[in-house]
Amino acid sequence: MRVAIAGAGAVGRSIAGELLENGHEVLLIDKAPTAISVERVPQAEWLLADACEITSLDEAALQRCNVVIAATGDDKVNLVVSLLAKTEYGVPRVVARVNNPKNEWLFNEAWGVDVAVSTPRLMSALVEEAVSVGDLVRLLRFSHGDANLVELTLPEESALAGTQVGDVQWPEDTSLVTIIRGTRVLTPSKEDSLEPGDELLFVAAQAREEQLEELLSVRREDTSG
């Protein structure tokens, strides 16, 4: 897979290193000569150019890329790169870094963004995920299709504890993708039972999040006495 990364700072180089280790072809683009540090990621291609300029993106052969990652520290640049990648070059997958959470609302399909990654939001979400039981935590927003990756730790008193996945009437536009149980990562089947303490990861439409949280958090009726 060919991936172009706009922004060769610490974030861009780190992403490039991970992708190269996984066998992908990576091009790093930056307009600052001081950012061109070939020795830091020698396996990558490097291009000294302004990723907001069509001529630069032509030189980068962006039309051959499967993924473009806008990873600069400037939200305006990341939006422009995303829009050009999607509309001018038809790149199938565009991932954009959000530096200022106040700008997150802009990073959507209208600007060519398929996945927006907000580091401050992700960090706060991971903190919430670590301490919250029974509360839905949004981990990642997918701009295309208005879907989110969300997590909920099933509480001890949940009415769904002990229920098989296939017997649950999940909300529309919702998919259970992973169950994390202790150190195990399970791909859920219809026969798997939900257990208290399970970390459940869903891809869900934003409009269904409240309904999903209510379904998972509802308490079982007390039949004692």
UniProtKB/TrEMBL annotation:
Q: Which residues form a coiled coil?
A: none
Q: Which InterPro entries match?
A: K_uptake_TrkA, NAD(P)-bd_dom_sf, RCK_C, RCK_C_sf, RCK_N, Trk_Ktr_HKT_K-transport
What UniProt keywords are attached to this protein's entry? Ion transport, NAD, Potassium, Potassium transport, Transport
**Gene3D superfamilies recorded for this chain?**
NAD(P)-binding Rossmann-like Domain, Regulator of K+ conductance, C-terminal domain
User: Which intervals hold domain RCK C-terminal?
Assistant: 137-218
Ranges for domain RCK N-terminal come to: 1-117
Xref: SUPFAM superfamilies: NAD(P)-binding Rossmann-fold domains, TrkA C-terminal domain-like
Key word Zinc present in the record? no
**What is the name of the protein in this document?**
Trk system potassium uptake protein TrkA
Organism for this UniProt entry: Streptomyces incarnatus
